[in-house]
Amino acid sequence: MEFLILLYGLPLLYLCFVLWRKADKKRDQGCYILDYQCYKPSDDRRLSTEFCGEVIKRTKNLGLLEYQFLLKAIVSSGIGEQTYGPRIVFEGREDEPTLEDGISEMEEFFHDSIGKLLDRSGVSPSQIDIIAVNVSMLASFPSLCARIINRYKMREDIKAYNLTGMGCSASLISVDLVQHLFKSYKNMIALVVTSESLSQNWYSGSDRSMILANCLFRSGGCAMLLTNNTELKSKCMFKLKCLVRTHHGSKDESYGCCFQKEDDQGRMGFYLGKDLPKAATRAFVDNLKEISPKILPLRELVRFGILSLVRKLRLNSKKGSGSARPTINFKTGVDHFCIHTGGKAVIDGIGTNLELSEYDLEPARMTLHRFGNTSAGSLWYVLSYMEAKKRLKKGDRVLMISFGGGFKCNSCLWEVVRDLEDPNVWEDCIESYPVKSTVNPFMEKYGWIQNEDLSTFKIPE
């Protein structure tokens, strides 16, 4: 009898042990945001209308047509007067950037945001197991990642990753990297640092496809702590539900629409091509196709499938050639939309495609107005706006959508773990938002340029 119990009991105990190990492993593979801190540069770096006009006037080789183009671009950008630029512009040295300018710009951000993040969260540098830094247009030696490790004297066995060339969607790539590491290591804390260096990429030439970047990109960044330690779950803010990355680098049009390059005179800058809207739309659609089944309820997917089938049958029978194309209601699975502030056209396009309301688009519009396009860091300013407005309640689901050169579209879904209301970088201004109008005062001050004649125009003193 004892032999039979042993014979049948051991395999059963082994099976239970295997199932427990799998369940335990899966439990520790979650990815949570413990805390995050956006960066607000000092007030002496604010790009007011008057100062921007001075920068444009001192830019060599600009003529009336370029002035008119810049005026139209800035006025329609959705950017206000309180955004921030690199110190090199305020020092009047944008024509002669150095490597040290780029490094100093990043170190100023690192010291402010990482220091505040660690102090508020109570996490010491020695507790950090993973660090991932993404700054696309600045590569230094030692790496930016190594500079942070040295400043905060982090452990010798820290897993360090320094990402460059990933564009505006790089922060979600860093999150994806960390969540994959979490699948192999338990009870980890990761520091993700995301920003962009403008010092060496502030364009001072006359190529329209490159001066456009000066109208959109602004200084900023974010530092965040991620963890898979379930003991810290009660302190966490968000849980990652899924993340989808779409890369169209194999398509020549998509690959060539965004480029860091030099113009004909050797001036470094960031090129934005005419194929950019088309490339973004294609990547966006493909990304939605993959993430939709992961985040939307079955009833919505079935509804969309039935309507699509009915429309197809009607088209085949030539009885419904004018019937509208069915759309998916993303609000059935998403409560808040965190959209990359790539520009007013980007926000409008996503809003139209997803049939979002002005309430849904408000966080992205106001972030663009207050901070501009801070590249990979922009998503976290939008998220911070939602938190400052006390919109994020326990159980809410937040969809992040970002775009980047290459061309890429990355998206992810976060679940709010607890009610959130920290104003972060919006503390001193959240009460004044949303603003009634995002019209830039450039038109009021420089609108006269539109009426100038090319043959008689002279640069004003």
Total strands = 11
Judging from the principal axes of the Cα atoms, what is the shape? globular
CATH topology value of the largest domain: Peroxisomal Thiolase, Chain A, domain 1
- Helicity, as a percent range: 40-55%
CATH class of the largest domain equals Alpha Beta
Structural class: alpha/beta
Head-to-tail CA distance between termini: 104 Å
Mean pLDDT: 90
Spatially, the strands of the biggest sheet line up as: 3-2-4-5-1-6-11-10-9
Residue share in β-strands:
15-25%
Q: Any idea what the radius of gyration is? A: 25 Å
Put simply, the count of helices is 15
Total tally of structural domains: 2
Order of helices and strands: HEHHHHEHEHEHEEHEEHHEHHHEEH
CATH superfamily of the largest domain: Thiolase/Chalcone synthase
Quick one: biggest sheet? 9 strands, mixed
List the helices and strands and how they pair.
Elements: H1 2-27, E1 32-38, H2 49-58, H3 64-75, H4 87-90, H5 99-121, E2 130-135, H6 144-152, E3 159-163, H7 170-182, E4 189-195, H8 208-216, E5 221-227, E6 238-247, H9 252-255, E7 258-262, E8 268-272, H10 276-295, H11 298-316, E9 336-339, H12 344-353, H13 358-371, H14 378-388, E10 397-404, E11 408-416, H15 442-446
Parallel strand pairs: 2-3, 2-4, 9-10
Antiparallel strand pairs: 1-5, 1-6, 4-5, 6-11, 7-8, 10-11
